[in-house]
């Protein structure tokens, strides 16, 4: 791949992380000219550009070297490492960013008894996070079915295609609306700055170091 001299940061195109991520980058002294297709935003002051993509694609883009850094949920990063990125060099979580906090949890129908994980044995669990769910089940020695869905996981119990779900919970509103209750937590998540384990030894590496320094300053002020 042709080496770039400008740094490229991937972030979610539209979703819960978009506004706070942009706000954080602005506070770090970065500003962007919005391009017409809004997929690529050229950085105005510093040599740092933005790529606006689906959050699930961000770890892969970093692993391929298409982007140098990404702002993404720990849940997406961890799922990638357990599935598509299994064989690749693990990515690093450079900094936790303090926004987009949520939990990856098991939720069960209101009326279903749940005291401990063993009660999931032989049940079917719908999720968009098969890697994290399977690992958690394995760690707990529980044999359960994993039904992988790309979205709308919360309706699976009502449709009869699963007995429970494993999905992100933020306010809990989605669970209440679907007569589900949170039963167990697999992972505490928030937005993180992700990148390769080793920084490039060129201007981009220097820029990343500068950015990390500014980020630490911004985060300190926020505490
Ligand atoms: C997540 C998750 C739940 C919802 C939980 O979906 O899948 O549906 O948020 O949030 P709550 O507890 O505040 O209701 P999201 O809206 O991020 O998008 P997606 O399901 O399309 O990925
Ligand atoms: Zn997503
Ligand atoms: Mg959802």
From TrEMBL:
Keywords: Amino-acid biosynthesis, ATP-binding, Cytoplasm, Glycosyltransferase, Histidine biosynthesis, Magnesium, Metal-binding, Nucleotide-binding, Transferase. It catalyses: 1-(5-phospho-beta-D-ribosyl)-ATP + diphosphate = 5-phospho-alpha-D-ribose 1-diphosphate + ATP. This is ATP phosphoribosyltransferase. Feedback inhibited by histidine. Its EC number is 2.4.2.17. It is found in: Cytoplasm. The chain holds residues 1 to 223 of 297 of the full protein. Its cofactor is Mg(2+). Residues 54-216 form the ATP phosphoribosyltransferase catalytic domain. Belongs to the ATP phosphoribosyltransferase family. Long subfamily. Pathway: Amino-acid biosynthesis; L-histidine biosynthesis; L-histidine from 5-phospho-alpha-D-ribose 1-diphosphate: step 1/9. GO terms for molecular function: ATP phosphoribosyltransferase activity. Catalyzes the condensation of ATP and 5-phosphoribose 1-diphosphate to form N'-(5'-phosphoribosyl)-ATP (PR-ATP). Has a crucial role in the pathway because the rate of histidine biosynthesis seems to be controlled primarily by regulation of HisG enzymatic activity. The keyword Transcription regulation does not apply. It comes from the Bacteria. Transmembrane segments: none annotated. It comes from Dyella koreensis.
